[in-house]
Amino acid sequence: MLNKTGVPEKSLILSRFPDNVNLGKPKAITECYEPIPCNPCETSCPFDAITVGKDINTPPKVDFDQCTGCGICVYSCPGLAIIVAQIKEDQAFFKIAYEFSPLPEVGETVHAINREGNILGTARIEKVTLRKKQDKTALIDVSTSKDFLHEFVTIRRMS
């Protein structure tokens, strides 16, 4: 499915997530499924939680024990292929990269979008961070239903 549509199979997606116990704290989820020459996630991680290795074509692996979910890898990824996920009670919280303008506002209700570009439901903007070192890629904190944990990938503004 990935090679035909660009959308990974659910088993691939699930292979990148830690168990729900580990998601009690924020963790980086890398969605690099094929070998490509890339390693900014590894070099930007201040906790050495992401490993690509000597061959930069190797898809990254996250050490969930080391990952703090800081989100630096999210805005450092040139392919926008990393999110941070966390579960709190019945909600899923994500940190996503966002490169559109205007930026969403804290408290705004947006569409929660899946990997096929379809609307899953609604999400709430919790925080918007854009610092000079992020090079115009904002880090957006979003909350949505826990039911969307493995499907959510981005937001679309309502208008």
Number of strands: 9
Spatially, the strands of the biggest sheet line up as 1-4-5-8-7-6-9
Task: Specify the overall morphology.
Answer: globular
Order of helices and strands: HHEHEEHEEEEEE
Helix proportion: 10-25%
Question: What proportion of the residues form beta strands (DSSP E)?
Answer: 25-35%
Number of helices: 4
Supply Rg: 15 Å
Overall structural class, as computed from helix and strand content, comes to: mainly beta
Largest sheet: 7 strands, antiparallel
User: How much is the average pLDDT?
Assistant: 95
Uncertain stretches of 5 or more adjacent residues: none
Structure description:
The protein is mainly beta and 159 residues long. Helices cover 13% and strands 34% of the residues. Strands 1-4-5-8-7-6-9 form a seven-stranded antiparallel β-sheet. Strands 2-3 form a two-stranded antiparallel ribbon. The protein starts with a helix and ends with a strand. The model has no long low-confidence stretch (mean pLDDT 95).
